[in-house]
Structure formats: C-alpha cells, structure tokens
Write a structure and sequence with these properties.
GO terms for molecular function: opioid growth factor receptor activity. The protein is mainly α and 378 residues long. The chain has helices spanning 6-16, 33-38, 51-57, 62-67, 72-75, 92-100, 102-118, 137-146, 149-163, 167-183, 191-196, 205-218, 230-254, 256-278, 280-283, 290-302, 307-329, 337-357, 363-373, and strands at 121-123, 131-133. The protein has a domain at 13-20 and 28-203. The protein contains 19 helices and two strands. Residues 255-340 and 373-378 have low confidence and may be disordered.
C-alpha cells in the first residue's frame, strides 16, 4: 500500500525512547551472555561458533551468511527478543560493559564490516562511519534485492549501532540506502524498508529530520510521500537555505579581502562627494576613470588581496586620493602653477613623440593637444 507502516513507526519510537516499561531480569549481573560471546568465551547458539572463528572463516563466505539465521542475533543483540529464542536479549549493564572493553568494541566493528561486505558496502572511515560501494556491489545488491529477510537484519544492525553508541554510523548507513533506493534506484526492493524502518532508527532528532527531508527531496512522486508533513518539509528546506546563506554571509564578513573592498568603496564615495563640491574648478583637473579603479579592486578581492594585483589596486587608490587632494587645493582657482607645469611636461613629451612620427601641421594642433592633456588622467 501507499500508506505508512504505523506498526513500524510505533516499534521504532519505542526503541528510540529506550523501551519504556521494559523490565529486565533480576539476575542481570549473572546473565551477560552477549558479553561472554563477544569476549570469545562461548559459541553462539544453536550449533554456533566462537566469534573469532566466525569473523575469520565467514569473511567471504556469502552463502553461509545468507542461509544461516542464528548468528545475527548474537552479532547484533537488542533489548528485545528476535526469531532465535536461544539468543539472549541485551541488557543495560551489558551495554555499559561492551563500551568499556576495547577488545569487545573492536570485534563489534569487525562484525559490522563483515555484514557490510556481505551487502556490497565498505566502511572507509572508522572514525566517522563513512561508507561506499564495494567492488562487487552489483552482485551483492542483486542478492539484497532478492532476499527480503536481509531488510530485517539491516534494521537490527541499525538498532544495535544506536545501543552501542554508534549513532553517527546509523546516519551514514541510512543515507547510503536512501541514496541507492531513491536516487540511484539500484535497490528497489529495499526502498520500502529504508523508509519505514531504516530511516526511523536514527536516534538523533536533528539528523533524522535531515534524512527525512533528503528522502522527501528525492521521492517520486513527491506528493505521495507519507513519512513527514509536506508543509513542514517545505519550511525545513527554506530554513536550511536561509541558514546556509547566513553562514556564507558571515564567512564573507570575516574575509579580509571583503573588508578591504568595503573600505576602498567608502573612500571612493568620499572622493566623489569632494569632487562634486569642487565645482567647475575640478573639471580642469585630471580625472580618474572610476570604472577602472573598481575593476582593479575587484580583481584584488577575488584573488585574495595579495600579490601584484593587490599592489596595483593600492597604487590606483593612492592615485585617486592624490587627485582628490589636488582638487581641494584648486577650489576657486581655474588653473595653478602645478597644472601648467604638468601640461608643459606632457606637451614636451608629446612633441618628442611627434618628431618621431612627423612634424606638427600647425600651432592649432599644439593648442588642441595642450587642451586635451588637461583632461587626461595622470
């Protein structure tokens, strides 16, 4: 059916809240069967092996891992009974004892890797729990699609990861299956279990919401998604986008290149105001192309504000300030001695260039050149 499996929802809610109302055996201290198995002291039942023998001899024995149904409850014990009634439920005291033993927890990670390999997955980072496809993933995915009882095993593994303090492992494994079922569509027969069961084993509420939103984004048709209210999922997406934009804005403010650009822009605005106050007298002074300045400063910011680009932008900024300073000095004066001298030097330079290219045609040409030089940037 297209509806949600509410029995699964209730079961997983009970798991996430620590099995409220569950009464453990009064002989809790004496009945650490799961811990004894992981210490390599007893074999799993019925007709089982010691855990070290299992981890070594079954590493690539996919046929045995598929057909034997007794070992999974011992490798990944829970605080509830499973199909193997010879396996013992996990106790709170056992959980604490598991976490205190480095030897036991190393075996637990090896058991997790064993099952991942069986499903065509590789644990590439033991610290974070990051996963990827194994080289033989196509063959193993085919087996996973064909035998649906493996979905129950995966749910058990996810629950046990949460009990043992590996909630970050849960997130990566669920995300892996959501990607394969909804995005890459390689595991169509696992899709329903991934949404009804795997997704809601994640104990971290924040991470679970992220995964539900991820599933909703890739589910088709999206209108048939029944694992979360659509209006809240829409708002969650908007909030996430705003949060990312806010974070980028903060990073931008902390960027030294941006601060440099802001201060330059303020100087430019001040300079423009001063030029406007100077009136007609400023028109007689050389002007800087504001677009060129901004373009050079933009290059400075984009490239981190260092190297030759930064020097060039700083030089341009100094030139602009010098020009503004000159503008202040000539208020009320049409032309000062410095300007005349500057024109004269530029006229001489121009005449020298003209000698190379040919003589000037008339005194009018010289006058035009002199007038034009007064309007050029130094």
């Amino acid at each position: 059916s297209g509806g949600r499996n509410w029995n699964a929802a209730k079961d997983l809610q009970r798991y996430r809240h620590g099995y409220p109302g569950l009464i453990e055996s009064e002989r809790e201290e004496e009945e650490m069967w799961n811990l004894s198995f992981y210490k390599n002291e007893i074999c799993f039942l019925p007709r089982g092996l010691h855990i070290e023998t299992l981890l070594e001899s079954w590493w690539d024995n996919y046929e045995v891992l598929e057909e034997n149904h007794s070992y999974i409850q011992w490798l990944f014990p829970l605080r509830e009974h499973g199909m193997n009634w010879r396996a013992k439920p996990l106790t709170c005291q056992e959980i604490q004892a598991f976490k205190k033993s480095k030897e036991v927890m190393q075996r637990f990670i090896r058991a997790y890797q064993l099952m991942l390999r069986f499903y065509g997955i590789v644990l590439i980072n033991e610290e974070t729990g990051e996963l990827k496809r194994a080289e033989n993933w196509a063959e193993r995915f085919k087996n996973l699609n064909w035998f649906s009882h493996n979905n129950l095993r995966i749910t058990r593994i996810l629950k046990c990861l949460g009990e043992m303090g590996y909630e970050h492992y849960q997130v990566h494994l669920v995300k892996f299956f959501l990607t394969e079922t909804l995005v890459k569509e390689t595991l169509p027969n696992v899709k329903r279990s991934a949404l009804d069961y795997f997704l809601f084993t994640v104990r971290s509420k924040r991470k679970r919401r992220e995964l539900v939103h991820y599933a909703w984004q890739h589910f088709r048709p999206r209108g048939s998604f029944v694992w979360g209210p659509h209006e809240k999922l829409l708002m969650y997406g908007v909030r996430s986008a705003k949060s990312q934009q806010h974070q980028k804005a903060e990073e931008k403010q902390e960027d030294p290149g941006t601060k440099c650009d802001d201060s330059v822009e303020k100087d430019q605005n001040r300079s423009l105001e001063e030029e406007q106050k100077a009136g007609d007298a400023a028109d007689l002074q050389p002007k800087v192309n504001d677009g060129d300045v901004k373009e050079k400063l933009s290059e400075c910011v984009l490239k981190g504000g260092d190297g030759e680009e930064e020097k060039e932008a700083s030089s341009t900024q100094r030139e602009e300030k010098d020009l503004n300073s000159e503008t202040d000095e000539v208020q009320g004066t049409a032309e000062n001695d410095c300007t005349k001298e500057s024109k004269k030097r530029k006229l001489d330079a121009n005449m020298a260039d003209t000698k190379k290219s040919g003589p000037l045609k008339s005194p009018a040409d010289i006058e035009n050149i002199s007038r034009n030089l007064g309007e050029c940037a130094i």
